[in-house]
Structures
1.
Amino acid sequence: MIGEAVHAELLVLRLVHILTAIAWVGSGIFTSVFLIPALAGSPALMGQVLAGLQRRRYFVAIPIVAGLTILSGLRLMWIASAGFDSAYFATGPGRTFAISGVAALIAFILLMGVGRPAASRAAAISAKLNAAPEAERQGLSAQLDRVRRRGAMATMMAVGFGVLAASGMAIARYV
């Protein structure tokens, strides 16, 4: 019975981990490769899209998805390593899973510490830009461009670390 319970927990954890990782990294790739570049030429349109994403709670959902990915991964690592036993991390798979987990944590920190605040700030500036008198638009546009570049750079870096994490997780059992 205990073996069946552990097996069921592993299945649920792996499903949660893999599906949330797909959503997290996939949305990051879409955002950094397609969405941001497509909207970069039109600050007003970018503001509308960001406001729409805020209304649909995207900026709440993605950190939750990322958190579920990390928490399920930590629990899976706890189980696989028999309570974070150092002998497990001396193996190829153990090292690869650990390095991949650190890459995921870095991606999460970039997302929450730089990317999310930049997106929120860009949405606020865009809303002001749409209602601003002509004399203030140039300054707001410059400010929006700086915030957008910072957010785009953080997003690209987070996606890079996310892809590294996903790649490491995919090959860890074979290292």
2.
Amino acid sequence: MPPSGIAPERRPPRAAIGLLLAGLAVFGLLAVLVLLAEPALLAIDRPLSEALRADRGDVLAEVMRGISLLGSRAVIGGILLALTLWAIVTRECQRTVGIVLVVFAVAMVLEWTLKAGIGRLRPEEAFALTRVTTAAFPSGHALGSAAVYAILAVALGGGARGHALVWLLIAAIGVSRVVLGVHWPSDVLGGIALGAAIAAGGVLALRGHRLDPKRCPGGHGT
């Protein structure tokens, strides 16, 4: 018998709790460094940025733009809109889809709030291949993709290989923002860390439910 009569699939996953705490810790540390010791942080950020941009040609730039687009609000929002319409039409997995939407909303609100509150400047315009006007920390592309793609990987019931591919995509999106010259590496790392923490919170709320009509609350079978 599981402890306290809790079914195994209802137990809070330890990995999600660990990711939540680790993500918040890493983000908190980076936020403090940005606010209180940015020159020291730039001493690390700048060489890394220059190394990633060293061999940036036209072909690589276009590839990076394409990868970066996968982390944009337009693409992520389009995916979630399609998922929402499916849940409404089929009346399946509505609670699960709702949790994914809340994760996305929390990520967007935190991005806007933190950028406005911290106000970190982006890299010099001379390095940028894409023009942006908002603050730098945390990276919105990294934050949004980590939050949404990570929880979707869990909700879709992906195995270890699927999860690895999702995190590889998230990392590639983050790298693309540095190569394009619109973020420092610490902006990206902060965004991924906070996004991972938000996704972990969403996973705890899912409590074993997946995008499967037979298991999702809110479907025809419930």
3.
Amino acid sequence: MGTVIYSMSVSLDGFIAGPNGEIDWAAPDEELMRFHNEQTRELGAHLCGRRLYENMLPWEIAEETRSDSQQLEFARLWKVIPKVVFSSTLEKVEGNARLAKGGVAEEVAQLKERSDKNVSVGGAGFASTLAEMNLIDEYRFFLSPVVLGGGTRYFPALDRRIVLKLAETRTFGSGVIYVRYWRV
């Protein structure tokens, strides 16, 4: 059975995007991109909302727009991962994606049952829904040495606490610290 993972870059003050949605501060260097590629190889599916789905669409044509070998490797890995998009406004999706047919809990249960590979969850808004439903097994973040002062939070406001157990840390040359927690 796969593990449901929420993984994002996070500022020191807990934001995944700045006040105007900016994420330029989180661009990975070559070492971090290699690590992202290693983690992407472990994925059997990806769940996301409309905004992240649309933000990730350029990876579908990366061979035409990028030349960096690590980014091209990510694009090749990303394109083959089945994606389930939750949206009330999209009528169709492209690439290896499909619109969700059922509710969040049902889709997560089906994906976990079908594969031993991990399921990633993307987008803070969508991940907050899964966090509230207690469906995220692992929280991974890449703590970046920047303070944004506001923006989109990694963790939503919750009515209850989530107790976590430290599973792994790793420090990169750029000063980014990877932290992985399991839900207790």
4.
Amino acid sequence: MKKRYIIGFVIFLFAIAVGLIIIYRIIFIPYGIDIDKLKYPITGIDVSKHTGKIDFQKVKEQSIDFVFMKSTEGEKYKDETFENNYLGAKESGIPIGTYHFFRFNKSGKSQAINFLSAIEGKKFDLPFVLDIEEWGNKTTKTNEEIIYEIGEFIIAVERKAGINLMIYTNENGYKKYINESFINKNIWICSFNKKPNIKEKWTFWQHSHKGKFDFADGWVDINTYNGNNAEWNSYLKR
């Protein structure tokens, strides 16, 4: 009987140890995959209010080549750190872009108005991005209705801004909303596979949600550009 209790206690301790290791990995170890930097030498980050305070001069000093920052979401929300992030990044001289988080249950046209009002008068080095993902998006709309509203947003922004919009999404969102409907759009893909599993050639690849740097208070999303240094320089000129 005593031996059985000892074995049970050991198993119990082992289970606790495994649980603590899993929790540690989830919370503290950056989640994502390693990228072959000989093949993909250009590294960037994307940030929002969740990233916390950012020292953009340190960003540039730590071999970060570009920054995408959240500006808006839905019909009315503006990211509370957008203005400071924009000014800090511009002062550092790092190439920047901005994105809008798309709400499935809101009008594409009204969301475009929100986005355009936030970026008015500002200058960017990278494309405007529409963030399409099911995470945090509860809706009763059909896929066809969602795709229509996405199209309305894209048309409104491109007519006003005069540039082509890029789409950010994950592999599931790409297959459901983008694959057959927006085949001419550049793609910024979020994927934790060793190679993004999409038909379209990707321009940017987000491969980690939990990068940790001393230039930011919180977690940082890490991205890579699909090209070498010469191609990156040419891309920036375009």
